[in-house]
Amino acid sequence: LHPWVTKSGEEPLPSEEEHCSVVEVTEEEVKNSVKLIPSWTTVILVKSMLRKRSFGNPFEHQARREERSMSAPGNLLS
């Protein structure tokens, strides 16, 4: 145990008997604990958003990209 956890022993941790208790979990609770498992595409999307630190609507960004024109501004190519 690192000394900073207890302020070098000034504030000891509470005893395990005082603050811990056994929790019994039934098989039914285990079966009902997960309601929805995300698809792999969702997991990949969230990972990408976390990596880029971008929490906006990714589908809105895609729509904006599709709206861009590939022609030069002001019809300079005409």
UniProtKB/TrEMBL annotation:
**GO MF entries:** kinase activity
Organism, by scientific name, is Mustela putorius furo (European domestic ferret)
Sorted alphabetically, which keywords does the UniProt record give?
Answer: Kinase, Transferase
Q: What is this protein's record name?
A: Calcium/calmodulin-dependent protein kinase kinase 1, alpha
Highest taxon above the source species: Eukaryota
- Annotated region described as Disordered, given as residue ranges: 56-78
